[in-house]
Amino acid sequence: MLDYACGNGVASRALAPFMSTVRGMDISSGMAEQYNIMALKAGYTPTKMQAVQGDLIDPELTPSAELDTPAFFNFDLVVMCMALHHIEDYENMILQLSKRLRPGGILLIVDWVAHYESSGLHNDIRAMNISNGILNRMGFAEDDVKRAYEKAGLEDWSWKWASVPSQVPGESGQFNMKVQILLTAALSATEALADQWPGAEKECGRLGVMKWDPHDLPEGVYPSEIRKCADHPMGAGNYWGWGEYMPDWIPRNPLADRDWTWLRGPN
């Protein structure tokens, strides 16, 4: 897994129990250092979980020889959590992230919905530079991000809204805006468990691990609907908290039942 614009590694630590290796990348050397400190405190070795300084948009700005090594390509999952709105050219950002995926890998972006879209107001104020240029966009419209994903060659697009509004800074004061969860995948084949859906043994003749082509599944079966059996060791469902709309064949996050509402700050 690659966690881009990783900060101190909140997303990485949530997903690390289900990943063989986790790599973080941030344009700030200080953030990469904090990421590594927090990873060690969480009990992860540098072999398992480590971050480096790097900028995929402008590699020369923060040159790192590691970015061109095999260790930073062919990821099963690339995550960018609450950072895309800082990027001026978000289409190029999505393209660069997609280049780090293996065939069949998943690009997951968590960010805000454009205020005009979440409020039902339709206007063309989609981007603005505020807070000394730190915040480049007030959120994203579905069509804009979908088009960027398609330009990057990603398929099986999915766009989901979180159920709880989040506070987003405005030019003055604050206003409510829905946190947007964006998910797409360039899938070639999906490793899944045949016992994740009731008709598996009847249709496939066996249970257990098998490889499915997501474009050639049994009739009426879709990757987004595949869930683990309730008695499977990894548990039922897939609820990841902030990433609760990830495909159901990704195992359940044991941290999902904890109360994370304090992360949103005061209402």
Automatic annotation (TrEMBL):
Superkingdom in the source lineage: Eukaryota
Keywords assigned by UniProt, alphabetized: Transferase
Signal peptide start and end residues: none
UniProt xrefs under SUPFAM superfamilies: S-adenosyl-L-methionine-dependent methyltransferases (SSF53335)
GO molecular function: transferase activity
The keyword Transferase is assigned to this record: yes
Coiled-coil intervals: none
This protein's name: Methyltransferase
Source species of the chain: Fusarium torulosum
